[in-house]
Amino acid sequence: MKKDPQTKSIYGQELLDLITKTVHDYKTIPNKGIMVMTSTSVKHMARKISNHDEGEQNEMIMRYLEEVKKKILLNISHYAKSSSSMRE
């Protein structure tokens, strides 16, 4: 191994230490993911849906998911428009 004569450390050691520290820092950050299951609106819907028979439950879930999908797509298009206006 080659060592820097001034610092007596291995060449690139500072970079390796920085990379190691950065990886460690990223590992300590909790994974956010999509936290739908802890949402109070999801719990509310689950309680509301549980009062119906299985056939109605499936239909209600599909309608709820379709509504969520529409809201997400609407937000995506909103963010796409605002980010494209920033590029101009």
Structural class: mainly alpha
Helical proportion, percent range: 55-70%
Taken together, the total number of domains comes to 2
Order of helices and strands: HHH
Provide the residue-averaged pLDDT: 81
Q: Low-confidence segments, ≥5 residues, pLDDT <50?
A: none
Structure overview:
The protein is mainly α. The protein folds into two domains: 1-30, no CATH class; 39-87. The chain contains three helices and no strands. The chain has helices spanning 13-28, 40-50, 54-87. The protein is elongated, with a radius of gyration of 25 Å. The chain starts with 12 loop residues before the first helix and ends with a helix. The mean pLDDT is 81.
Entry summary:
By secondary structure, the chain is mainly α. Helix content is about 70%, strand content about 0%.
Write the layout of secondary structure elements.
Blueprint: H1 13-28, H2 40-50, H3 54-87
Keywords:
single chain, 88 residues
